[in-house]
Amino acid sequence: MRKTFSAIAILLGLAALVLGIGQRTVWAPPETLTASLAQSPEAAPVTLLEEGIGTAAGHPTDITIKADGKFTASLVRTDDAQAWVGKAAHTTISGINTEDHVVEATSETGEAEVPNPAGADLFQGTEIADKSMTYRWTNPDEGSWTLLLAADGKAAAPTDVSVSWPGDTATPFSMPLIIAGSLLLVAGIALALVRTPPRGGSKGDGRRAAGMGPKAGPLPEAGKPGANTVAKVVATASVLALALVPGTPALAASQSPVPVDSSTQDTEQVFPVVMQQQLERILGEVSTSVAKADKSKNAKDLGERTTGALKTLRGQNYKLRNEKIKLDGPSPIDTTVIRSAAVPTDDGANFPRSLMVVTAKDSAASTIPTALTLTQAGPRENYKVAFATAMLPGSTFPGIAVGEKSVKLLKDDASGVEMQPKAALSKLAGFMDNEKSKDADKFAKNAFLTLNTKDQNALVKANKDAKITFKRTVNDKDTIVMATPEGGALVSGNFISTTTAKPKESGGTIGLDETTAKIVGVKDTKKGIEISYGEPVLLHIPAEDSKDKISVIAAEVITKDAKLLK
Question: Region annotation Disordered: residue ranges (predicted)?
């Protein structure tokens, strides 16, 4: 019986040792796991990688993308990515099946071509790769982000995407098996080496030998355990082995945590439509593009980065100066330093979008900054500058940083401010036409309004034999309104200003200044003349409970054209 127990203990010990050592060598789990697409999707111009592939089993993943040639990878908010894709065919890679090591993907049919997304303003950043790139997911801000892959918009976007992450190399059974196996092996060998002497007995007629006392049993040999002791050792080893073996499955620690539904968190969050570095890149490209047009004085060069009244007025300035008419050129747009940035938040991909920014060539207090308004018509369009005017002396623009969540786009009839933006522009136009307007006291005094009144009065006084009128109208298409943190609003607008001069008496003559005479080709007129200007303005309207007046922050007068009356 002893030999049987010994053999069983040795066999169990050897088996446990083989299993324990094997888990760390032959059967060791892989250090890196990889998942890839089960099959190639249909060719499409866009591939969207969602942040679900950024982690696997609680570990950040390395995303490997391969293509036949060059491609772009652009990080963009998920809602904006969907807006940019629109109706185009695309592949969406959304997550990882860690059990089957498969990247999950779906395909949508649609338009076969899209614009080349390289460098588009909508994207937080774009990286150009040649044939392959490895990407580790990092969100630059809160919210949901997507990596948009494309070739040139016409060729198929990359879909050879694989994801790798660290495997669970833990072997919780290995050491307990090695320990238990060693103990069982030692116990089995010890049990095999135990030697039990044969029991002695008297032979004869059944009588005791004379002088002999009761026969004593054999004395136990020192250092040699008896059968009962060995049995106890084996039992103890078995208990120890059971105690060392964990009661949970080996892979329990490596299981992915249950995903938390974040939909309820994201629905109430809002995010700035551009990030700080993104804004700096956009402003730099706008400045460079407009500087190129100012240098060439070619209105066609304005198409890339200007729009609205600014494009019209700047183009007209080029035209007149190219005709050798002496006019000052438009002020340059220097975006070296961002003084303030009213970047609205957005809870979805809503367009058009607008930004208001104050920039300057440096941070010196003596430098006059420029107020800019930029608009983005749609997700595939770049931002274009619609307003760029030097700020007036003594005026202030609210200090706002990118990410301020109270900044939002408003409509021109918005409430909650001292005066509706549309009405404020209209009343300002009436006051500038006539200093005695009943609305004059609603606007804070400044150098621009004072000089406007002075120049108009001087023109009337110098032409007593002429009837001179001033008329300004608001171009509603150019009006942009932005809520500010203190509850007020910034209003970017444009006046179409007309100055008309007619002789008071029939046969009278009106003399023209050198610039106007050059435009119309005559030095005087008996019929009269109409001179048109563009007057871009930026207002600050206080909150409705404020006692402050509406202030003009930035404004200028740009000669647009002149024509003789018939």
Answer: 196-222
